[in-house]
Amino acid sequence: MEGEFLRYSEPASDWNGALPLGSGTLGMMVFGGTAKEELQLNEETLWSGHPADWDAPECLEALPEMRGLLFERKLRQAEALCKEKLVCRGQGSDDPYYGSFQTAGSLIIESPVEDSSGYERALDISHGVAQTVFGNVRRVHTVSHRYQVTASQITGSGNMRLTFERDNCAAAYGNDEIVITGQNPGPGAMGFCTVVCVETDGKIAVSERALCISGAGTVTIWACTATTYQTGDDPEDVCRRRIGTARRAGFDAVLADEAAFISEAMGRCDLELPGDHMLSDLPTDRRLERVRAGETDTGLCKLWFDFGKYLFICSAPGRLPANLQGVWSKDMWTPWTGDYHININLQMNYWPMEALGLSDLGKNLWEYFRFLSKHGENTARVMYGCRGWVAHTLSNPWGFTAPGQDPDWGAFLCGGAWCCRHIWEHWLYTGDMDFLRGNWHVLRGAALFFTDFLVEDPKTGYLVTAPSNSPENSYLAPEDGGKIAVTLGPTMDTQIVRELFTCTLECAKILGEQDDLTDAIERLLPLLPPTCVSSKGTIREWIEDYEEWEPGHRHISQLYGLYPGTEIDPDGEPELAEAARRTLERRLSHGGGHTGWSRAWIINFYARLRDGARAEYHLYELLRKSTLPNLFDTHPPFQIDGNFGGTAGILECLVQSHLGVIRILPALPPSWKDGKLTGVRVRGGLTVSFAWRNGTVTKLSAVSPDDRDAVLEYNGETRTVRLRAGDNTLEDKDKNV
Fold first, then answer.
1. Which residue among 147, 176, 481, 499 has the highest number of C-beta atoms inside a 10 angstrom radius?
2. What is the pLDDT of residues 148-163, one digit of tens each?
3. Dihedral over Cα of 146, 147, 148, 151: its sign
4. Residue 3 half-sphere exposure, CB side, CA atoms within 13 Å?
5. Distance (Å, rounded) from C-alpha 368 to C-alpha 398?
6. Is residue 281 part of a domain?
7. Domain holding 142: CATH number?
8. Claim to verify: residue 139 and residue 181 sit in the same structural domain
9. Are 67 and 169 part of one and the same domain?
């Protein structure tokens, strides 16, 4: 079976070198050891914690005083009051009720090794298969989207010992299976079960803490984890049913089915870049070392792009969206709890989804937004006395929408509004009227909140959010030069609210929903502050020209309007575009871009500024400084949003469609002189394919769902073309490309 591979010549030294497999619901990390193999498992809903009442009613009573202090620019007093009142009940993400994404544990396979020659482990991202080969031993692993089980087959080992490792659970070994059960502490907390079943032509002996296999030619291992999250099912019954169905199909059929699923999804959008074929035979970690030493590797860039697609396919579908670590975590208490940060991270996970044509794998994202909106209605009412719904910096599977435990970072209140952007984008890409109608209440509720919450700043006369903050950043208070985070009307808030209001009006027009809300939005929209240029020539981050506490901060929130927003554009707003460029230069000169996801965002910024050289530079910086041996992004530690954000950035360099014009090669990396991109989706429901040689588009076609006009920009020209329903050839200068 031909495929595209991550290759390694030795076992993973730790989790950061292990190879990921996943089905959205289940995740598995394969270490590839010889005498000792570890298969570390996850299940997307396996969380500690449980639902709780996090909304703090004392915030509402203190809101007028908070605002009054901000209006008078008594910033130190305002922040002190916010630290007391603008917080959740409990301790937010440090609260055991809030919980954390947890590992399901590790299956350990021990076997004597007589010959480890010819060692190779590989992950075939074209088919979702990991395998380890050495001597006469061959191990093959997959995780099935259809059957929701992990499946492993081992030949050539003969004898082996199977154990399972996880804290805070009970383990039972019997016959041909291991059953792990547990119950997290707290009222209504999660119950869970992992079942491991073994098939072999050898003999199985059961000890108290192991399954011992002898004389085996072939061993097939099935595993499944299930929880009680939002279901009354018995997790053990669920595991046994799934494994039973998979066993009846057989390992080869399960493997072939998963390979077909992954292959189809990976093939929807395909990038071809010329690379050194000799480098493709090198172990992937060696290729990464070469790049870190200053070499370029176009083939590795393509592999990294395809790996981002693969990770999305393996972690996005399921009951919950991909979290901060996708669906993979080795810990009982995952860094940042492995939650859903909605001040950029969850959104970044889904930036490439529409263009890759994978939106059918994101249904749980819309379900999660609807879920959050219901919980956010209570937060809006209890904490602010507002209609509609609101969600702040972070969220979890239990519907946490309150501020965090410290307003320095937790007071950002446009997280839910930012989520609404993805609803609108899905409409722009697909034109799905049923989807728009089904999610209208989410958009409407988010906009309704801000029509109630916005307040006039007496000093500027503009409508602002107050109190809030610019995500996780701080400034120097003019009154004492100290560090301050709480503010009113930060630039990102205003850009998001302006976008939300505009999209809500457009949606209402499409659906015929004109009412008091749309009248209010039309009245309020012109009263929002404009995006301004600071005295340094940068985009101003706050309502006044404050000095940054950390000029190289990882969040570059004031550039939301450049990407993913659309209000800063080199053609329409050249002054703001130049200020955006200077903002990036200033951030980077002070050490910005030091986290993987932040560097990925920077790639998208430069793509929107149509600067392919800078975008390519930062792609290589992402590889050099923020990529682990298994190509996972690292914050550090591992955090998956950099993989997805960088994948989106590569697409943004090659095609853009956000302002009614389809731009082909708007920011082509200089070393990518020749290439081909097929099956990329653009806004308006089109699917575009094109090839280029020496930076010039030589072939271009577009599949349209109906007859329509489209505006295209490529090879230095802009023209309007009439498309017919179906496939349209627009350029074919070089039939050999």
1. 147
2. 999 999 999 989 999 9
3. negative
4. 22
5. 10
6. no
7. 2.70.98.50
8. yes
9. no
**Residue 40 domain flag:** yes
Reported as a pLDDT band with limits 50, 70 and 90, residue 737 is: very low
Instruction: Kindly state whether residues 78 and 176 are assigned to the same domain.
Output: no
**Distance (Å, whole) CA 630 – CA 517:** 49
Give burial (CB, 10 Å; 0-12/13-18/19+) of 443. buried
162 and 203 fall within a common domain: yes
Last residue of a domain, one of 266, 294, 315: 266
Using CA atoms, how far residue 617 sits from 305, 559, 597, 666, 708, in Å, is 15, 19, 15, 16, 38
The answer to whether the beta carbons of residues 348 and 340 sit under 8 Å apart is no
Task: Taking the CA atoms of 204, 105, 358 and 613 in sequence, report the sign of the dihedral they define.
Answer: negative
Lowest mean pLDDT among 109-118, 123-132, 624-633: 109-118
> pTM for this structure?
0.97
Checking DSSP bridges between strand 708-714 and strand 662-664, what pairing results, if any? Answer: parallel
- More confident of the two residues 178 and 95: 178
Tell me if 107 sits within 8 A of 217, measured CB to CB: no
Dihedrals phi, psi of 610, to nearest 5 degrees: 60, 40
| Domain termination site, one of 211, 242, 266 | 266
Q: Are residues 180 and 81 in the same domain?
A: no
CA distance 15 to 10: 14
Tokens 């009982």 belong to residue: 332
**What CA–CA distance (Å, rounded) separates 642 from 178?**
36
> Taking 70 as the threshold, does the pLDDT of residue 559 lie above it?
yes
Which token pair is 275? 């690379």
In angstroms, the Cα distances linking 485 to 474, 478, 482 are 4, 13, 10
Q: How confident is the model at residue 735 (pLDDT cuts 50, 70, 90)?
A: low
- Looking at residue 734, its pLDDT comes to 67
Unique residue bearing structure tokens 């993979």: 328
User: Measuring CA to CA, which residue among 253, 303, 355, 248 is closest to residue 688?
Assistant: 355
In 251-387, alpha helices (H): 251-266, 284-292, 298-315, 345-349, 363-384
By residue count, the chain amounts to 737
Average pLDDT over residues 572-596: 96
79 shares its domain with 222: no
Which residues are within 8 A (CB) of 102 and not within 5 positions of it... i.e. 6 or more apart?
46, 47, 48, 329, 331, 332, 333, 334
| Three-state SS sequence of 401-417 | CCCCCCHHHHCCCCHHH
From the list 223, 222, 224, the residue with the least C-alpha distance to 251 is 222
Residue pair 734/698 in contact by the 8 Å Cβ criterion = yes
Q: Are 718 and 704 in contact (CB under 8 A)?
A: no
Examine residue 578 and state whether it is found in any structural domain, yes or no.
Answer: no
4: left (phi over 0), alpha (psi -120 to 50) or beta: beta
The DSSP H or E segment spanning 723 is strand 717-723
Structural tokens at position 657: 């469609």
Helix (H, G, I), strand (E, B) or coil at 649: helix
- What burial letters (b/e) apply to 333-349, b meaning 16+ CB within 10 Å? ebbbbbbbbbbbbbbbb
Question: Number of structural domains, the chain?
Answer: 2
Q: Is the CB of residue 105 less than 8 Å from the CB of residue 169?
A: yes
Could you say which DSSP state residue 638 is in?
B
Please give the mean pLDDT across all residues of the chain. Answer: 95
Query: Is residue 193 included in any domain, yes or no?
Result: yes
Domain coverage including residue 87: 61-94+353-359+379-569
Task: Provide the β-strand partners of residue 517.
Answer: none
Closest C-alpha to 489, from 537, 443, 527, 449: 527
Same structural domain for residues 117 and 245?
yes
Q: Longest Cα pair distance anywhere in the chain, in angstroms? A: 82
CA distance 593 to 11: 31
Angle among Cα 438, 444, 445 to the nearest 5 degrees reads 105
Q: What is the DSSP string of 416-461?
A: HHHHHHHHHHHHHHH--HHHHHHHHHHHHHHHHHHHHH-EE-TTT-
260 and 209 co-located in one domain:
yes
